[in-house]
Amino acid sequence: MLTKSVNPINCILMILVFSLCSCAITHQPAESLFTQDEAASLDLNQLQGKSWDDYVNQNLMGSRSASTGPRIEIKYPLIKSTNSGPTIETTSPSDMSVIFTKRKDGNPVDMSSLEVVGKKGWLKQSLTDKFRPYIKGEEIKATNMPIPKGKFHLQVSIADTGGLKTVENYLLIVK
């Protein structure tokens, strides 16, 4: 009978390589919400004084109205009501959970209508494709998403299958 001895060091190396490959597959880092260039062009930090107040009134507070479309519920990071409107403060990387629910007596949520946009005045940058991999049913659930530091205006919109749309604006502050 011929037996072949197994080198214990080779076994350990194989286990280590397998473990590292498994971690790489299951714990891939999330794509950054903004590239550094996008963050620089969308960062609201340079707006101060009257220009900041005008921006808040025209873009964050002035755009609030009752909606008839699906509800947008940000579970985390936590949202606060401030003088600048609905504000999300977080650090990077950040976990995110946003749930979309139909209104009572409303039509089902149409997740294909989801739009997430970074805004600064007339400048708009679609971020929707960066969120698509994290959509699970009627929820966006992202873990460890890198976000460059800054102050950003995010606009989230979603419609139901009947075409009724909700548009919400948020101030995102990343420290």
From TrEMBL:
Alphabetical keyword list: Signal
The keyword Signal is assigned to this record: yes
The keyword Signal is annotated on this UniProt entry: yes
Signal peptide positions (record): 1-24
The protein's name in its UniProt record: Lipoprotein
Taxonomic source organism: Desulfonema limicola
Lineage: Bacteria, Pseudomonadati, Thermodesulfobacteriota, Desulfobacteria, Desulfobacterales
